[in-house]
Design goal:
The chain is mainly alpha-helical. It has 6 helices and 2 strands, in the order H-E-E-H-H-H-H-H.
C-alpha cells in the first residue's frame, strides 16, 4: 500500500472510531459504535481522494455494478474482489478481507446480543 493511502486510511479509521450512532430505547438515548462497511472505506478513503466514482472503477474492471454495490454498502467483499481492489488501489487483499470480516463480526455480535452471554465456554483451563 502506498504511503498516501496508508495515512489516509489511518486517519479515516481514527475518525470512524470516534463516531457513534445515537439510538433511543425506552426514553433513554444510548450510543453504540458505528459499524463501518468496507464499502464506506472504499468510497471515503480511496475513491473520493482519487476523484473517482464507483462507476469509473467498475469500468476499469469491466465488472458491471459489483463495485457500485460495494461502495453503496449493499454487498460484501469476496476474495476475488479483494484481489482486484488490492491491485487497482495499491493495497493488499488482506486489508479488504479484514475490513469485511470485522464488519461481519460486529454485525453478528449485535444480532446475537445476549445469546452470546448465555453460551458456556467448555474449554476453560482447570484450576490447579
Amino acid at each position: 500500500m502506498n504511503g498516501q493511502f496508508q495515512v489516509c486510511l489511518c486517519e479515516w479509521r481514527k475518525v470512524e472510531s470516534e463516531v457513534a450512532d445515537h439510538h433511543q430505547k425506552d426514553g433513554l438515548v444510548t450510543k453504540t459504535p458505528k459499524h463501518m462497511h468496507p464499502g464506506e472505506v472504499l468510497r471515503e478513503a480511496f475513491l473520493i481522494p482519487l476523484g473517482m466514482s464507483a462507476g469509473a472503477l467498475a469500468k476499469v474492471w469491466r465488472a458491471g455494478a459489483r463495485i457500485e454495490r460495494i461502495a453503496g454498502e449493499r454487498t460484501a467483499i469476496a476474495a476475488d474482489t479483494a484481489l482486484r481492489l488490492a491491485k487497482t488501489l495499491d493495497a493488499t487483499p488482506e486489508l479488504w478481507l479484514n475490513l469485511q470480516t470485522d464488519y461481519d463480526v460486529q454485525i453478528a455480535k449485535r444480532e446475537l446480543g445476549k445469546t452470546l452471554d448465555r453460551i458456556e465456554t467448555v474449554n476453560k483451563p482447570r484450576a490447579a
